Amino acid sequence: MFWLKTRIIEGEGSLEALSKEASGYERVLILSSGSMKRHGFLSEAEDYIREAGAEVFSITGLPAEPSIETVEERLPKLREEFQPDLLVALGGGSVIDTAKALKVFYDAPELNFEEIAFIDRFSKPKPVPKLKTKLIAIPSTSGAGSEVSAASVLKKNGVKYNIVSQEIAPDVAILDPRLPMTMPREVARNSGLDVLVHGIEAYTTKVANDFSDAMAIKAMKTVFAFLERSLEGDEKAREKMHYAATMAGIAFLNARLGLAHAMSHKAAWIGPHGLLNAILLPYVIEFNASKSEYARKRYDEIARELNLKDWRELLREVKELNLRANVPKLSELVDGETFMARLEDMAQKAYRDGLTAFNPVEPTVKEIKELYLKAYRGE
Ligand SMILES: [Fe+2]
Q1: Residue 194 Cα, ligand 1 centroid: separation in angstroms?
Q2: Tell me, which fold does domain 183-377 have in CATH?
Q3: What is the β-pairing status of strands 159-164 and 172-175?
């Protein structure tokens, strides 16, 4: 099965489409990152909405990591004062994830966070009921795929939970390449490498199909062709990367992801998501290929699409891209003692992560531990 709920509007200046999208609505709430406010895109968005004749309210200054506490703090104002009939998320993946969670509890106030959230692959949450408020996502970074995905990652008391439901997938995504031009080089690198990991993992899960494959392949080709130029500030390349991020998002929305993501989620305390994925990916490819004929066949297919011979060459290319992009070693991000102290816990939790179920190989806790260790030693 392949599905995509989100209507995608792309192109330079496409932020203007907000005006048309907001017409017919009365009260619009924009959740914006501080960076989009600083670069003037929040006020531009507010103007488009006012042009459409709607009242506009804005929330900025959200913390970098979305949490249920952040959502709960803002809900009373949303319900009693703003009462929006349209939600707009303007920023990176965490702003979009926060907007998705706000939508859930704004539209369905009777819900309790614990009963709808996944902690791991063995939990059985209640389905999210039908929600009504329209959500428009306008990503300013190129990686997370949250502008099309059905997931929102939220912390509660420091633990990461997932809400997964088609109900929270945005109705519209506006991909204006002027926005990601503001990304600092490091953010562009980390999120751009995440796009590659999304492509490779989505292509090799147990539930990938021809339709998700097409999106994954195009995204991977784009990363190899344009990521480095995009990091140098080339506008066309950055635009291509912006679209590739959404394509990879459409791929994993359908085909899900694998062990690199399961492991990076549990190592999130060490560093940025995309960077950890980039560090872990080569070890996961090698592991999967060594254990599964299906995985080897799928990596071989990716390799051929990229004009490479086989999965070994693909692995080499992935490692070389990391080197060229100056991806640090895991041991440069965290000291040995701290890492070893949390290793067992990370491996246990990665084993239970929802995405591990989709990896082409079902790993044991011991194997996951060994992969973390290999990555730490840089072997
Ligand atoms: Fe990711």
Answers
A1: 5
A2: Dehydroquinate synthase-like, alpha domain (1.20.1090)
A3: unpaired
